[in-house]
Amino acid sequence: MKVLLKLLLVAATALAISAPSYAGKDLDAIKASGVFKIGTEGTYPPFSYHDTANKLTGFDVDIAREIAHRLHVKAEFMEVKWDGLIAGLDAKRFDAVVNQVGVTPAREAKFSFSVPYSISKVVLITRDNNNTIKSFADLKGKRSAQSLTSNYAQLATSYGANLVSTDGFNQSIDLVVTGRADATLNDRLSFLDFKKQRPNAPVKIVAQQNDASKSAILLRKGDPELVEAINKALQDMKEDGTYARISNKYFGTDISK
Q: What pTM did the predictor assign?
């Protein structure tokens, strides 16, 4: 029995000694290679897309590049379709996914997340001269332009709205602008991007839900040092104004709040 206890104690001590080096293995590998490999779509404006010169750009791309800079390494992007991003992280094709990945309990059970770096809410959008709709409750009996299979359509119906079928955000906004719909429920970040591109469009946000959808950088479990380093980079970016500059470039406001 004493021999067994000694063996268990030795094994436990060895594990404790080796754990810190194992925990930091991803961060150590990134610094040793000088490259932070990032999975992203490249087809998801304004977060990750190609500009007119075919250069990969976007809010998420700029955030990821700045994090790499603060880790003193180079950002290397691997463009993958959405369905392959998580599988690619699992397969160690890249070190992180930066692509507006929503924080959910199911994902948290398998992966690590950074602190959230963008927050969005469901907003109620009307034409700017509409003074009859001021809250979600005011949708009752009104025409709401929605993609019929979306969560937004279900939410609009729950408030008693009559749905006007659309193919997506842009068509929904067009129906509101032309008066063929009274309102639309949609994502706050999509609206901010739209207003950045078309500041004179006669539409406005009249209400928003309190519940927020948070997006963060997705990482493999087992390396708290990498998570901590990324979190520090994001915090420093917010404190020195870099985050606000990037956010305003794409959305005209700070989307971390």
A: 0.83
